Every structure is written in C-alpha cells, then in structure tokens.
Amino acid sequence: MWEGILVFIIVVVIICLLAAAVDSSRFVKVTYEIKSDKLTKPCKMVLLSDLHNKSFGRENHRLLAAIDGISPDAVLVAGDMLTARKGADFGQALSLMERLAAGYKVYYGMGNHEYRLGLYPDDYPGMYEGYFSGLKKAGIEPLINESAYLPEWNISVCGAQIDRSYYRHFRRKPMETSYLKKILGEPAGEKFQLLIAHNPVYFDAYEAWGADLVVSGHVHGGIMRLPVLGGVLSPMLTLFPQYDGGVFHEKKSTMILSRGLSSHTPPIRIFNPGELIVIELKPDR
To answer: For position 266, what pLDDT does the model report?
Structure first.
C-alpha cells in the first residue's frame, strides 16, 4: 500500500516538474470581446501584465512577433513588467517597451513592483530613475492616477496606483469609493471608462467608481492551477483566490484579469502558461 502511495507521489511530482518546465517558458493567446454603446468604432487592444523582466526568446522576439501578428490599435500594460529586487536587471522589460512604443501607442499602468521602486529609492538605487527615464525617452508616459483620452473610439484610459497598504498579505484592507475618487477624480461617464488597476481584489470598488472595463494582473493565475479549483495561491498569500484569471462581471462593469506572462519568487508556473490577451472592443448598436 505504502509503496503504491509513494509511486503515486513520485509520478505527481514528476508531472508537476515537467509542467513547470514547459509552462514557465511559454505563453498562450486569449481573446475577449467587450461591447458597449459608448464605443464609437471597433478597437483592438493587447493586454500585457507581470512580465517580471522575462524574455520569450532573444529580446522577446516571440512575444513581439505574436503582438505584431495581432496588429492592435493600442497596447495596455497592467504593471509589474520588472521585479523590484535590489540590483535586479530591468533591461528585458525596458527593451520590450521601447520596441512596442516604436510601433504602437502604449498605455502603462503601475504595478506594485514599479510603485515600490519609487517608494523606496534607497533600497533600489537607480532603478526607478533608470527604468522610467527609459520609458519616457521611448515616448511612454505611465498613467499614475491619470487618464488619456482616445477620441477615435471615445475611450478614456485611466491608470490607478493604489497605496501599498492595499497589497498587504493575508487580509484585504477595505477600499472606499471615495478613495478612488480622491486619487483618480470622477470617471468620464459619457466615455467608455477603461481602468488599468493592477490589483484585482478591489474589483467591487473599481465598479462603484464607474469603470466600464477593468484590466488587472498581479495574481499570476495562482502560480499553479488545478481542475475545478483554479489558481492555488495569490501574492497576498491567500489560497484559491476568488480572482485568479479570466473575465469577471460586477453589475455593469467587466474585469479582464490577466494571468500574467511570468512569475517571481518562485519564478515557476504549473499548468498555468503565461497569457497574451487580446481585447476586442465593439460598439453595441
């Protein structure tokens, strides 16, 4: 009996190791369609999140080729393209952003890792200045609690940078709608309000603020995914998080949650390949 159990455990471990080896180095394309009567014409966007300085092929040529094959009207970035670690390299992330900005309009929302670099500059000497000066040189102005209007489609893109206290482990700090109005202002009600918000846990607050569409990341798909149960562990160290990846609805708002392109600490993914998300926005008429 015990021999059988031991063999079963060994087989499961081997399968997981093989899955990790494969899934940690690949990504899949996932497409979502969103309709709204606020949109004036179809718009195709690509969503990137949680790259953590990974490269799919030399200088991310596999990822760039996939994006070029989609020919999006714009690229959305939901944060954590690098990893906030002392002395860590951000060259792959910056190179990807530079290459994307050369061909597309990029709307960059902050993740907790980008935010951390600016919050603790002494812990990460030169990283914030180096990365963000590189972005600006490439023509990318991160949306730090700011909005950009896309008149061709009547879309207002807003990037939310929430306080670090909303990323605490183990428990969810309540977020009032007034907090979002304080940092973001009032939503553009007559425009299609697209909110880049890295942490998906506060989807209810984003909806109450007035977002028509929320795009998020942060959870990495739960690192490991199990049938029926879904993602296993969130960065907040909660088991089987409610929001692990996919599309979610709250009243009149929709959230598209990317499972991210990579992970960190540990940098593995099991039964959980990275995601390149395509969002097709269409007028509902």
So the answer is: 73
Other Cβ atoms closer than 10 A to 249: 10
**Span 4-39, pLDDT tens digits:** 777 667 767 777 777 677 778 899 999 999 999 999
240-247 CB contacts, 8 Å cutoff, 24+ apart: 241/201, 243/200, 243/201, 243/203, 243/216, 243/219, 244/219, 245/219, 245/221, 245/275, 247/32
Spatial distance between the Cα atoms of 259 and 217, rounded to a whole number of angstroms: 6
CA distance 246 to 258: 7
Closest CA to 163 of 147, 179, 177: 179
Each residue of 113-152: b (16+ CB within 10 Å) or e? bbbbbbeeeeebeebbeebbebbeebebebbbbebeebee
CB atoms within 10 A of CB 239: 10
Q: What DSSP string describes 57-95?
A: SGGGHHHHHHHHHH--SEEEE-S-SS---TT---HHHHH
Region for residue 65 given its phi and psi (left: phi exceeds 0; alpha: psi -120 to 50; beta: otherwise): alpha
Record the pTM.
Answer: 0.94
Positions in the chain whose pLDDT score sits under 70: 1, 7-8, 11, 19
Give me the chain's average pLDDT, please: 92
Contact 236, 172 (CB under 8 A): yes
Q: What is the pLDDT of residues 89-123, one digit of tens each?
A: 999 999 999 999 999 999 999 999 999 999 999 99
Q: Taking a C-beta distance cutoff of 8 angstroms, is the pair 158, 214 a contact?
A: no
